[in-house]
Amino acid sequence: MEKKFKRTLVTTALPYANGPVHIGHLAGVYVPADIYTRYLRLKGEDVIMIGGSDEHGVPITIKAKAEGVTPQDIVDRYHNIIKKSFEEFGISFDIYSRTTSAIHTQMASDFFRKLYDKGEFIEKTSMQYYDEDANQFLADRYITGTCPHCGNEHAYGDQCEACGTSLSATDLINPRSAITGNKPVLRETKHWYLPLDKWEPFLRHWILDEHKEWKPNVYGQCKSWLDMGLQPRAVSRDLDWGVPVPVEGTEGKVLYVWFDAPIGYISNTKELLPDKWELYWKDPETKMVHFIGKDNIVFHCIVFPAMLKAEGSYILPDNVPANEFLNLEGDKISTSRNWAVWLHEYLEDFPGKQDVLRYVLTANAPETKDNDFTWKDFQARNNNELVAILGNFVNRALVLTHKYFEGKVPQAGEFTDYDRETMKEFADVKASVENYLDHYRFRDALKEAMNLARIGNKYLADTEPWKLAKTDMPRVATILNLALQITANLAIAFEPFLPFSAEKLRGMLHMGPCDWNMLGRTDILPVGAELGKPELLFEKIDDSVIEAQVNKLLETKKANELKNHKAAPVRENVPFDDFMKLDIRVGKVLDCQKVPKADKLLQFRIDDGLGGRTIVSGIAKHYKPEDLIGKNVCFVANLEPRKLKGIESQGMILSAEDADGRLIVITPAADEIAPGSEVK
């Protein structure tokens, strides 16, 4: 028997404020959290959704240093971008705050101090790298060196990105400070650790025995960690950006970001509800649900509960419905490689289409395994589902009512057996959608909501009111009354998923306030109620729009390849005298044409200052002949002639091969240069 709670606290993973939000974040955390919260609000339940930016930690200091600005400048920039894009996308936070707020600094500091005073931490002294010129201890990401596993000379102190191996800074060969480039020295430093091993028996029972209903991916990851045995985890580090450790004599030490960030949920709740925040965090009648991605499972199921348990007065999460990862066009989403669909850019490129992305990300949600977002699937789901099923039914029902009944809800007559079957079918949708939402199965819930539109389409197609209008208007009135009631049901069923479209539909139906309990009813719209003018809920997305987005990604991929391009190794040395034998000259292209029956070959007529010559070159896949006529090119003049497709080639045109395999003809920088000029 599931416990009934008085209220629900929904938290969403705090996005890291060193970049904007992308579709992976949305699919993993924010869209499902928003659906769940909107659903509970629609049911009239007491629910709050808490969010905010995570603004401390090393990556932010690294980005600030690289840009020559302060960490505060970085977090201000991205916090504002993230907050604005969430608002425009309809993620309905009750508060979206940040971990650089004064209230958070105080709360995180007090939380640490309470655990410190209770003796819940272990103090440990260890040797860590120190940069004597920069006069500071180095975080792992501030140390680079040679990976002992693969020999990559640019491995970080926590991981080698070439071979993926996790490292300790002391594992690196020839370590260097990323700040000064100098070799760091090992120095003694003291830190505080949360002894997770102390809480292991409690966590094992609480998760493995008491929460078998958690999603298999969450339960499995927790079991794996617990079976390996938990170790003490540092809660402080040497850094000048973060919440200062509230203990005397700890200058230059801050709370580790993993410790300070989840306290942001509490501080943001306190900022929202200064007088009653404890009701949501300390009353066992509150249900707490953490929405996160799979990379945060351990922190929210093991580490944060251990912190709360050590403090002693807080409730623990009832569920942590973490999603897996969303890939993009078959490749892992990556902020550093700019391989992502950024929310703020989507909102600019697709104005008014928030619900299309919400729909696609929910329909394709990575609930149990990693899933893939493709622009072709985005287009297909919009055109074949939102337009052809949901939008089509709503439009037909409203247009037919305006055509036959002056836009007023007609009186239903006697229902046929088929009508009653249809009513039963859509009455059952409420229980199905509800059951799926209560168990965090948002993809299945969306399918059920869309089934309601399918039922409506089938009902109109089977009853054909446009044909009956010639002979039986009372029957048409009954059919359209029922079709309109289904439409009103759609406005309620889709409110958690597609809030912008649901609001537009309610406007067209002139519906007053509605709640979840009305779902499944056949008397939502009263007889005689006047309807608004029918408008299209969704519009088709053309191929050209999708091609533009695919091309944007292809350009990103190309830029990444160029950035990571490594030149081919230099060939064996040749004697200087051999090189001097080459006669490289400048010639002007007088004529250029494709060689028949040869895909790769172009035939050039070159003005070489000596009466002209013919050269055949294999660059036809890279240039149109007409683009080269009139250009100056560099060519080898004293190469032994050879026949290609029956044409004698008297030299070689010089080209450079780009990182992506493209051949680029070498041309002199000066346009005015005499044909036959030697290249020295």
TrEMBL record:
Q: Where in the cell is it found?
A: Cytoplasm
User: Which residues hold Zn(2+)?
Assistant: 147, 150, 160, 163
Q: What is its main location?
A: cytoplasm
Q: Which domain of life is it from?
A: Bacteria
Which CDD domains does UniProt cross-reference here?
Anticodon_Ia_Met, MetRS_core, tRNA_bind_EcMetRS_like
Q: Tell me one Pfam family matched here.
A: tRNA_bind
Cofactor annotation comment: Binds 1 zinc ion per subunit.
A biological-process GO annotation: methionyl-tRNA aminoacylation
Which InterPro entries does the record match to this protein?
aa-tRNA-synth_I_CS, Anticodon_Met, Met-tRNA-synth_bsu_C, Met-tRNA_ligase_1, Met-tRNA_synth, Methionyl/Leucyl_tRNA_Synth, MetRS_core, MetRS_Zn
| Enzyme superclass (EC) | ligase
Q: Per the record, what is one GO cellular component?
A: cytosol
Q: Catalysed reaction(s)?
A: tRNA(Met) + L-methionine + ATP = L-methionyl-tRNA(Met) + AMP + diphosphate
Keywords of this entry: Aminoacyl-tRNA synthetase, ATP-binding, Cytoplasm, Ligase, Metal-binding, Nucleotide-binding, Protein biosynthesis, RNA-binding, tRNA-binding, Zinc
What EC number(s) would the UniProt record show?
6.1.1.10
Q: What does this protein do?
A: Is required not only for elongation of protein synthesis but also for the initiation of all mRNA translation through initiator tRNA(fMet) aminoacylation.
- What family does the Swiss-Prot or TrEMBL record give for this protein? Belongs to the class-I aminoacyl-tRNA synthetase family. MetG type 1 subfamily.
Tell me the subunit arrangement.
Homodimer.
UniProt-recorded name of the protein: Methionine--tRNA ligase
The record lists the organism as Barnesiella viscericola DSM 18177
